[in-house]
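Justification of resources, computational component.

The compute hours requested in this renewal are based largely on the per-chain cost of generating structure records like the one below. Each record pairs the submitted sequence with a full structure-token output. That output is archived, and it is also reused by downstream analysis tasks.
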Amino acid sequence: MPAHIADKLCGREFKNFDNFREALWLEVSKDPVLMEQFSEFNQIRISHGFTPFVPDKGHYVGPKEIVKKFQIHHFISIEYGGGVYNIDNLRIVTPKLHDEIHYRR
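The structure output for this chain reads:
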């Protein structure tokens, strides 16, 4: 996560992780350099606080679900003491990478 985005979220309190996710993408929407990396469709999603879709090669296609949007990964799992909202503990990854991290598939 870019430091300047993390700085804007640091110290804020969130009711739940959905609110955090929305705030994250709204901050991204304010950065033209980051926004130019996304398709026009995803730029619209991001400007409304919605998670953007990843390119097809980043999708996770599993036996029961297909995940197409970027994921927020906790570098140190919450179950092992990783902070839920600790910016330094969060990474934005594709669904495919998220699955590989957790399940080494």
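The first strand starts at residue 60 and ends at 61. Residues 3-103 form a domain with the Colicin E7 immunity protein; Chain B, fragment: Endonuclease domain fold (CATH 3.90.540.10).
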